Amino acid sequence: MTPNIPEVVEEVRELFERYEQALIDKNVDVLDATFWNSPHAIRLANYEHGYGFDRIHAHRVARPPGPGTKEKRHRLDIVTVGRDVATVTLVYKVRDRDMVGRQTQTWVRFPDIGWKVVMAHVSMIDKEPTL
């Protein structure tokens, strides 16, 4: 249960950055591959409650491509516990709005399928965050 083993943090960072690029490119294959294909996967966002992989996928297909809501990153934190559990937290400036976005992901490395997001959250606030 050692926290933040450098090579594990780097693995998760690479997967997170791949996911972020896939959001911009609307690469649904990569977006789908990032999440656990299970009815237990959850993605909660501002106007979407994705309970289960099928609901998460449906949102991905309907979402328009483009730069999305992230204009500038304020803070990115990756915390790993051992070699198989991680959290990623991103705080960012919301594009074209006086708001701050928050994104969190819980990643688990499964023995047979590798790293997958099992739970994700995205929200926005209209106050400057305390970092």
Give your account of this protein's structure:
- The chain is of the alpha+beta class and 131 residues long.
- The protein has three helices and six strands; from the N terminus they run H-H-E-E-H-E-E-E-E.
- It has helices at residues 6-25, 28-34, 53-62; strands at 42-45, 48-51, 70-81, 85-94, 100-110, 114-125.
- The chain is globular.
- The two termini are 26 Å apart.
- The mean pLDDT is 93.
Notable traits:
3 helices; 131 residues; six-stranded mixed β-sheet; alpha+beta
Coarse structural class: alpha+beta
Compute the CA-based radius of gyration. Answer: 15 Å
In round numbers, the mean pLDDT is 93
Could you give the count of β-strands? 6
Low-confidence stretches: none
Q: What sort of overall outline do the alpha carbons produce when their principal axes are compared?
A: globular
| Count of separate DSSP helical elements | 3
Reading the helices and strands in chain order gives HHEEHEEEE
Distance between the termini: 26 Å
